[in-house]
Amino acid sequence: MLKKEMFQIVFEMRKITNSLSILSFLVLLLAVVSCKNEKKQKEEEKAKVSAIYGSVIAIGKVIPEDGWVQISSPVSAEIKEIRVKEGDEVEQGQVLMILKENSEELDVAQSQAQLESLKAAHQTNLSDLAKQDIILQELKSKYETSKALFAKNAETKEKVENDLSNLKQQEELISGLRSQIKANKASEKEQSILISKNKQSLQDYQITAIKKGVIAELNVQLGQTINGTEELGKIVDKDNIIIEAEVDELFADSVKIGQTVDINFVGKPTVIGKGKIVYVSPTLMNKSILFETANEAEDRRVRRIRIEPKKNPSLLINSKVECKVKL
């Protein structure tokens, strides 16, 4: 009798367990269906709102149109002088920093001294050539006179031969001078090239702005040793800006190049600027870090757009903005 009662109890417990499992499954299923319906409902409401107001909201960020220009050094050296600070406006080619050179400055001075020496020797050779040309003309005249007198039996053969010998020696001397002058010119050219090369090496110790803009994120100090791969700061063109924004995939096919846009700061209704769409991405992609929550970034895909704003001092670089695209 006891055994039968125990069997009945176990049987009843199994029925209860199975019932609870089925109930749990049904609750979970209802939750999933409810979430999907809620999500679908939100999307439908979103579409209705867009249709009613005739616009699509895109979240964007203000960035330089040509991107950030990196400040870096072509050589590894110690910073000797810093001529700018953050916020300074600079022109293209302006010297930003001076580095401590090793022997480059001495190389330039030495090369320049050698060039001056070659030029001086060249001038001396030119002067000698002019003098020797005068002597050559005198020897030619003397030889011609002796030869004419010899033809009239008024001069000896030895005298004519001696005058001819002197003439040929002078011609050889002048030929040597001309060769020396030519060699000097070649040496001067080589030295000038060497000077240019040394000066170029010296210029590597000057860090210049490769573009007009404003200095930002300057992170160097006097005496700091830097290398060619290190970022020393950035230059940004604050006058030429663009807005990179993202449109939810639900409205991806609604945005087109040329559409006008109202711009306001996120969470604030006041319109601070206007612009137009100048680029629309041909593909969808994952949401960027413009969306702070990771779950939201992975939830849906977006279509990237670029908006060209009208000139507005309120739009600061890196500002996060809300862009209302008018359909």
Automatic annotation (TrEMBL):
InterPro entries: MdtA-like_BSH (IPR058625). SUPFAM superfamilies: HlyD-like secretion proteins (SSF111369). GO terms for cellular component: efflux pump complex. It holds the Pfam family BSH_RND. It comes from the Bacteria. GO terms for molecular function: efflux transmembrane transporter activity. It comes from Sphingobacterium mizutaii. This is Macrolide-specific efflux protein macA. Residues 69-236 form the Multidrug resistance protein MdtA-like barrel-sandwich hybrid domain. Signal peptide: none annotated.
